[in-house]
Structure prediction request, 458 residues.
Amino acid sequence: MTQPALKILQLNLNHCIAAQDLLQQTVREIRADIALLSEPYKTGTGPCWAKDSSGRAAVWCCGSSDGVLQDILREDGFVRARFGSYWLYSCYLAPSLTLEQFGRTVDKIADNIRGRQGVIISGDFNAWSVEWGSTRSDARGRLLLEAFANLNISLLNVGSENTFRRSGTGSIVDLSFASDSIAASATWHVGSTYSASDHEVITFTIGDSRQPLPRTQHFRRVFKAETLNSQVFGHNLEGLSVRDIMSAEDAANSVMARIVEACEASMSQSGTYTRHHTPVFWWNDAVAEARRSCLRARRLYQRARGSTNFEALGLEYKRRRNMLKIAIRSSKRECFLALCDSAEHDPWGKAYQLVVKRLNSSRNPPPTDAQAVRSIVDGLFPVVDEEMHVPRLTPVLHSAECTLTEVLETVRRLKPKKAPGPDSIPNNAFKLAVLLYPHVFVELYSKWCCCRSRGSRK
Prediction:
């Protein structure tokens, strides 16, 4: 079974506030779905963030504001989270750990991975091995390879480009692993984007790009009701029937699925919003130019190792890096002051929206398990015994033998411009379906009324 495609950004932020700021812009530029981070300066709150017990490893669902991470496990040195059909592990094993502590953490990761499919592991392991391009192997590298040897995972690192650079030297300590079933289609590379960290930005894509992302990553489709082609709609509904379906719920699901298919064939849909279309609020041309200058100065500095102007280029790189940090701080300060001023003139504007969004981000996501939802509905809306004589409103469709007149009268009262429900079916399309096959809806509503009457007698 193929897995949906997932674009992942991996980075050690080195506990740097400038790197944390640039990360927000970088994930927009490369359109990453998930960010697996080591040593973040700070982490967010809500269901799209997960961090380990020490706060040095984090998973961020950055591809969508309503993305949800589930089954989160927080340990010292790594965090695990499930996103759709993938199991994500973000790790940071500090160089200060003893070999025994390093081995215990790696064994915990290996034990937790065992038996799982769709596993993705990344992080800064501070381990060396010729297997991933290092010039030598150390005890940490050998321990890591031994722990992962009996697991169905593969190393994604390609080539010998350094993932960590400082003072003209570097090493490969940022590693990425994935299950064998998804590693074959993975593309992994070290990016050239300046991150304000000593570590390079690593991006890799996993899964089948033809498969859609989990539903939380998509905006709901919206049909354009004015583009409805009645002939195409009717042709796609040809043969609609619920006669052979006993359950009222199954019959309703079957009818609505056919109507949705007919809508997709007969109407155009609104274009989906491109994720990360706009940069972060503080991004401007001055900050972009400062980042380009900083990247250029760093490259010259790294390539000049051993030359006479090595120290001078190092000082120039530090100067450019400080200029970038100052530019970011100045831009954020100006934007914040402008936001405060706008709140005075427009109390329901951007400032209000940001505060409300921040408050809502800490809310728990709604339950998706069918059994849990059913228990909540039964608790909130219990079946009332008729002997209690609770007054209730008489519905239009009141009898078990629903008539054609009742169905047509109910549909006639639907307003064509009213917003559609969760199924996204416009009212004019639904009215057309009823007019084309009224007997199907009479039978469908009769099944529903019979089920309701049987439930009330119980």
Summary: The CA atoms of residues 62 and 418 lie 33 Å apart. The chain is about 40% helix and 15% strand.
